[in-house]
Structures are given as C-alpha cells and as structure tokens.
C-alpha cells in the first residue's frame, strides 16, 4: 500500500530510550506474487529524487545509509500457485524478497563505500522461529507434491536464513564492501498473519493474547536488528529476543546455502 511521507522519532531499542532515531518514511506498493513485481518496485524506487533517504539513520547522527528490510509475508495460507508457477508461500515469503534484494544490492554496496569505515550497511530478513520446523528439499522447493501449509511456511522462513548466511559470506569476501546481512524472529505476535490458522487455534490465541507480544514489540526487535550498535560488524546470524541464537542446523550446510542461491537466481530470472 502507498502511504504519505512523514517522519517519526523513536527510542532506539536497547538504549533505554536515551537515544532517539529520527527518520523519514515513504512507501510504494509492492506485490510479491510474481517476479516482475519486485522489478516494478525497483523502477519506481529509482524515480524518487532521493531513493535511499529514509532507509536507515545512524544512532549517532542523521546521516542516512542503505538498509533493506524484507518484512512482508503470508503464513499458513491455503495452497496456491503464483503466475510464475511457484507455491505462494515460497514466492511471497522468500523468492520475491530475494529478487528485490538482489536488484538493490549494487546501490547498497556503492553506499557502503561512501560511509564511515566503521559503519556497515545492513540487510535484514524477517524470518520466524518456524524455521526450526523446515527442511529444504530441492526436489520440491518451489512446488509441493503434498502440500502442508505449516511445512511450506517453515521452509520459506528457513530459506530466508540460508540466504542471510550465504549472502553475508559473499559480501565479506568483497574488498572494502561493508554490508552485513542478518535474520530476525520478531516474536510471537497475534496479527493478520494468523488469519489462516484453524479456528480453534485462533480461539486459544485470543485467550492468551495478553501474554503475547504486540506488533510494536515485533517492530522493536526488527529496529534493533537494523540499527543497534551492538550488532555493528556482525552478520550471517539469526536473532530472536534481541539475542543471537542458533538457527535450524541445515543453515550450517554450505552446500545447501549455495544450491539455494543458484536455484533462486534461476527461479528469480536474475
């Protein structure tokens, strides 16, 4: 959805409210169900006079540098094939974000060469604790022989962390490039993403809603991952509750990382 540009001032997560982050916001419509849609947003993005403004502000000042945050997604949705012929959760939660990140990456790298050498740009993939239930099977990566919505969701979130690890490794091998890639679980939040859950689970969720995290809590976790100086220079990691934690063991498999990368380039027509 498009929104009006504006500005907000927020306490920096983990700072006890002592520091403030001021940033501009601007948005354009983004579709994720076809590989041409991230390309359309990419073209729209560069029509703007200052395409990178508002992406990230340093805690120490107002200088703006590049940050990509892959947030949008669906959860436990009914079986659906996109116009590219891919299972929808795989495409919406992972592949389209992969395409958009790949398109924007040259500008992010260029920006990293112009900022303070002690400050890195950040790419943040919003994953989920569901990644632990995933297992990548390349025989049915973008298609499902037997569809189980919870499994498809978990696999898509695991893909995000595998992408995080591999892209961060690539960027660290490039001389003078200062870009860190991180994945984050925003927390267990009752939101519209729960709409496709079975009714009895929704009843339970609403009953315990008071002890679950709010959308603001989830946003704070994402902001922490994108902005916290405690994470400066750290990449390729998975964060939950503002702490670095081990992800699904399959993330450690370099062969799986590379195979997913190559398959994603092919499926994303990059």
UniProtKB/TrEMBL annotation:
InterPro entries: NAD(P)-bd_dom_sf (IPR036291)
GO MF annotation list: oxidoreductase activity
Keywords: Oxidoreductase
Keyword Protein biosynthesis: no
Protein's UniProt name: Short-chain dehydrogenase TIC 32, chloroplastic
Species of origin: Folsomia candida
Lineage: Eukaryota, Metazoa, Ecdysozoa, Arthropoda, Hexapoda
